[in-house]
Amino acid sequence: MMAGASPVRVRQGAIVEGEFLLTADDFARLAGMLLADAGIALAQSKATLLYSRLAKRLRALGLQDFKQYCDLLTDPAQLEERGQMLAALTTNVTRFFREPHHFDHLRKEVLPPLLAAAQRGGRVRIWSAACSSGQEPYSVALTILGLLPEAGRYDVKILATDIDPNMIATGKAGKYSDDLLSPVPAAMRQRWFRPCPDGMEAGAELRQLVEFRTLNLIGNWPMRGPFDAILCRNVVIYFAEDTQAQIWSRFMPLLTQAGHLYIGHSERLSGPAAAHFETVGITTYRRKPRA
Known about the structure:
Rossmann fold; alpha/beta; Chemotaxis Receptor Methyltransferase Cher, domain 1; 3-stranded antiparallel sheet; globular; single chain
């Protein structure tokens, strides 16, 4: 060893080397909490991801290692921190008009008859079931306003839910940088958004179409529907297979007859619910009418 060099410390049981000790047992405990609370199955190959997402929580709390953090999370008095853990580990990748074929289908096939019925006194209900920071439900609202600029005068509503209260707060604020708004056509940005510091924010006519609520997809659902369309995209892929099948089955009775379900590009319907849908486009399904 060179003179003056510090000895290398061997951290027994570590599965990720870093500022804090994370052992296989720590990972298993955290992954078990994530599965129980959010239905998300996390393989040990994701240990580095878990470490990077949660290390900041350990720093903020002044903890020495992940065992202390696991012990803290099992304290019934620490439900708020347990929510912080879930929020940190939940993937929130989104953008305006992500998977544009879904919005094309809404605009061309689904919304025209629904909006015509709304003008005659009917109701339109759409659910963005994993809305992240709000770009998905606002994209639906923009698609509606593109067809019916006065949609706010009618009974047209979009429910936007997510497990992460931080994402819900971002959606409610409706403020986005110019980079995040780049997929939105310039004419739409000019008409339905207004300038704010560091970007633009959703205008009143856009906001009034969307209601944001915190919701855990594997928990209780207070809504009763029926919904004309449900978007649940790029979220159940993180769930165990049996949980995925349960989610699809819970969506089915909440859809109107011939209601539509939009799922992510890497997802497929599974379980008993699959028999109740027909494919009408790329990862686009319609509920089959009752026999």
